[in-house]
């Protein structure tokens, strides 16, 4: 019995308006003719992300995605690619205004300074409103509206979390101004509060007297004065003022720039006054207090049971001490950086290998090779060259990517031949569970397989390009298969139209390959000596 072919998820989504009663006459009359539904979806996705989607186009988009898992996956990949490139090639937009933490994870490299004046509370509220202004930021508005649509279609709850986060920040900024805002949460990693109902949000404003009780994880707090503190749970930490805090229990590492000299951490047994430095401090359950100076100078003011000062000692880099909670005796130690939290893991984005970038047409591409050719059994790997390409390819863009092939000319080869384009790259200090490789690819004529470290990429979309379609990149996101160290990414490109095996014709490949992921988790420290 013949095997039943798989059901076509695009069935019922043809371009004949009569075959689609769901489409209005206006929608049908305003559509251009496409070679396939996927091409139309690509154009509609671009229009949506750029804030140019008309009502008829939105109606058509709903038809293409309704009850179509393959289309929905493709649409999410297109959105993913746009967001990644928007982030990668941002220019004048400040980093903390991007959609990065909504689409890819938490904010990175953020050291936000907060003005504690009461009038700035209204500024914070206005800042949230400005963030959501669709006229000023059509990209953000398009992404949020798109995510809402996917929520309705696919039951995705992700947008609800994003909107909840934004509402939380707005509500917090507009809350009672009894205590001034003196700090902000600028990073977190696997953090949990002692109470399940207590949540910690990146960019949360912190007011004087606000207590942070951590069950686990890392939390980074940046103070108005400029000091930055990484707290490791379990911990009981209180934000006292723009230049002061209290550590009742737990472990922290403080980084204090020159403008924040005098930043003070109160503990049950001592006041730790920073003189422009980096240090680690810990308070055990019995209030035993330890101080390890990692850079600069710190002053420790030992107090008696009544809180009165009894000794003041300065420590320099490499020195450490421990205070006994009963005798108040101070034991000298050697500073150990390893027992204190490192940096909070953050998302990174970088370019891996864009074909022909920065090269001149005719140059070999040092990042890419042709590693195999199925029509040449004795083929040995050879350089891939930047080519001018056929007229339908469109212009090369040396600043971004260019076409490459088997020779510096048109790269003519037999139709039906399959060549493998490969690039090697190194991965280190990255959490592989969060890593993904967003790609934009073009080929003359077809990408028939993609492999990462010899393993096929799952759910590879059909990637054919017709003679008039060599200008539209296809998105591809590789989500697994990467390893620490050296990696190999390969694309099998077939020349010629489907079924064609006679004659020679140009063959070429073009790719933009990026990486996005969280840097490696810090090692779990051992108990302080």
What does this structure look like?
α2 (37-49) crosses α3 (55-65) and α2 (37-49) packs across α4 (69-88). The strands form 4 sheets. Strands 1, 2, 3, 4, 5, 6, 7, 8, 9, 10, 11, 12 and 13 form a 13-stranded mixed sheet that branches. Residues 1-31, 87-138, 149-177 and 523-529 have low confidence and may be disordered. It is elongated and about 95 Å long. 19% of the residues lie in helices and 35% in strands. The chain has helices spanning 25-30, 37-49, 55-65, 69-88, 100-103, 119-131, 138-154, 158-173; strands at residues 181-193, 205-207, 210-223, 228-241, 244-255, 264-266, 270-274, 278-283, 289-295, 297-303, 309-316, 319-323, 330-334, 347-351, 364-373, 382-386, 404-405, 412-414, 418-427, 437-444, 446-452, 455-456, 463-464, 474-478, 485-494, 504-506, 508-518. It contains 8 helices and 27 strands. It has 529 residues and is of the alpha+beta class.
Topology of this structure?
Blueprint: H1 25-30, H2 37-49, H3 55-65, H4 69-88, H5 100-103, H6 119-131, H7 138-154, H8 158-173, E1 181-193, E2 205-207, E3 210-223, E4 228-241, E5 244-255, E6 264-266, E7 270-274, E8 278-283, E9 289-295, E10 297-303, E11 309-316, E12 319-323, E13 330-334, E14 347-351, E15 364-373, E16 382-386, E17 404-405, E18 412-414, E19 418-427, E20 437-444, E21 446-452, E22 455-456, E23 463-464, E24 474-478, E25 485-494, E26 504-506, E27 508-518
Parallel strand pairs: 5-6
Antiparallel strand pairs: 1-2, 1-3, 3-4, 4-5, 5-8, 6-7, 7-10, 8-9, 9-12, 10-11, 12-13, 14-27, 15-16, 15-19, 16-17, 18-26, 19-25, 20-24, 20-27, 21-22, 21-23, 21-25
Helix pairs in contact: 2-3, 2-4, 6-8
């Amino acid at each position: 019995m013949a095997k039943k072919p798989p059901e076509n998820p695009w069935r019922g989504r043809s371009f004949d308006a009569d075959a689609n009663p769901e489409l209005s006459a206006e929608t049908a009359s305003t559509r251009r003719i496409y070679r396939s539904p996927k091409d139309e979806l690509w154009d509609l996705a671009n229009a949506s992300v750029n804030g140019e989607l008309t009502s008829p186009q939105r109606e058509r988009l709903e038809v293409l995605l309704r009850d179509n898992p393959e289309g929905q996956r493709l649409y999410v990949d297109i959105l993913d690619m746009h967001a990644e490139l928007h982030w990668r090639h941002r220019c004048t937009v400040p980093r903390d205004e991007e959609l990065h933490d909504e689409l890819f994870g938490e904010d990175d490299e953020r050291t936000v300074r907060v003005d504690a004046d009461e009038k700035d509370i209204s500024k914070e509220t206005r800042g949230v409103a400005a963030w959501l202004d669709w006229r000023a930021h059509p990209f953000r508005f398009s992404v949020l509206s798109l995510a809402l649509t996917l929520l309705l279609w696919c039951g995705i709850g992700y947008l609800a979390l994003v909107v909840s986060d934004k509402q939380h920040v707005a509500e917090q900024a507009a809350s009672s101004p009894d205590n001034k805002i003196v700090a902000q949460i600028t990073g977190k990693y696997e953090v949990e509060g002692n109470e399940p109902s207590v949540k910690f949000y990146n960019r949360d404003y912190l007011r004087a007297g606000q207590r942070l009780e951590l069950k686990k994880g890392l939390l980074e707090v940046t103070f108005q004065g400029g000091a930055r503190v990484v707290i490791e749970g379990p911990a009981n930490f209180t934000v006292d003022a723009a230049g002061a805090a209290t550590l009742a229990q737990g472990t922290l590492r403080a980084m204090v720039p020159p403008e924040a000299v005098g930043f003070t951490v109160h503990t049950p047994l001592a006041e730790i006054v920073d003189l422009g430095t980096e240090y680690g401090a810990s308070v055990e359950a019995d209030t035993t207090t330890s101080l390890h100076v990692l850079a600069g100078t710190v002053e420790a003011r030992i107090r008696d049971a009544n809180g009165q000062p009894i000794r003041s000692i300065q420590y320099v880099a490499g020195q450490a001490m421990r205070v006994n909670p009963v005798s108040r005796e101070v034991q000298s130690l050697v500073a150990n950086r390893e027992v204190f939290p490192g940096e909070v893991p953050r998302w990174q984005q970088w370019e891996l290998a864009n074909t022909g970038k920065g090269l001149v047409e005719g140059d070999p591409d040092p990042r890419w090779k042709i590693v195999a050719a199925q029509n040449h059994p004795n083929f040995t790997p050879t350089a891939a060259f930047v080519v001018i390409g056929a007229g339908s390819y469109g212009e090369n863009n040396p600043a971004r990517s260019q076409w490459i092939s088997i020779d510096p000319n048109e790269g003519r080869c037999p139709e039906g031949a399959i060549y493998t384009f490969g690039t090697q790259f190194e991965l280190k200090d990255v959490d592989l569970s969060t890593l993904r490789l967003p790609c934009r690819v073009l080929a003359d004529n077809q990408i028939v397989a993609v492999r990462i470290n010899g393993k096929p990429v799952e759910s590879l979309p059909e990637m054919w390009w017709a003679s008039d379609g060599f200008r539209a990149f296809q998105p591809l996101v590789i989500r697994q298969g990467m390893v620490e160290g050296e990696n190999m990414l390969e694309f099998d490109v077939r020349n010629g139209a489907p079924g064609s095996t006679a004659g020679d014709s140009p063959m070429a490949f073009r790719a933009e390959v990026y990486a996005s992921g969280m840097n490696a988790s810090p090692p779990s420290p051992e108990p302080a000596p």
